[in-house]
Design brief:
174 residues; alpha/beta; seven-stranded mixed sheet; five-stranded parallel sheet; 2 helices; 33% strand; globular
Length: 174
């Protein structure tokens, strides 16, 4: 199974990134790269854009909604299942993990426990954001730059800090 996973998902996605990595990091190239990478995810809807030099583990367990943008130098781990719903943006150098290392007998173990992450519709993760395994970011959430999110975030809020907490509710447009 591991060889099949490597040949079907990992290697082609890496080749797309390698080939398109020489192109400038622009909106046009992020669209080209996104279209080329779409077949290698569990599910990926149209309008997907992705920047250069991202690390994507277990793309076969990652679902991407319509019009999602993932900036450059991000780390996405799909081990426990990752779903990014439509109209979401992930800022540069952000990290989304879907598994946690176990802590037993006074030390961290190499084995891990998977826990899914869901980023719901219309949410924005600014730059350098870390989303921990098991977290749900509800719709319309803005995660401030540099935030480390350990717990789920309520709908239509702005969260930030280390660890992240609600700063305020989103202002409603007129």
């Amino acid at each position: 199974m591991e060889l099949k996973l490597f040949v079907r998902y990992v290697l082609p996605m890496h080749l797309v990134q390698l080939i398109t990595g020489i192109l400038p990091n622009t909106d046009v190239t992020s669209r080209i790269r996104g279209n080329m990478m779409r077949p290698f995810f569990k599910k990926c809807e149209p309008g997907f854009r992705i920047g250069v030099r991202n690390i994507i583990n277990r793309p076969d367990k990652i679902e991407i909604g319509k019009n999602v943008y993932i900036s450059h130098h991000c780390y996405l781990n799909g081990t426990g299942g990752l779903k990014i719903e439509k109209d979401c943006m992930v800022g540069p150098m952000s990290v989304i993990v879907t598994s946690k290392h176990l802590y037993e007998q006074g030390k961290v173990q190499q084995k891990s426990v998977p826990a899914s992450v869901i980023i719901k519709q219309g949410s924005w993760l600014a730059s350098h954001v870390v989303i921990n395994a098991g977290v749900v970011i509800e719709s319309g959430v803005t995660v401030a730059a540099g935030a480390i999110v350990l717990k789920s975030a309520p709908k239509d809020t702005i969260i930030g800090g280390v660890p992240a907490k609600v700063i305020k509710e989103q202002e409603k447009g007129s």
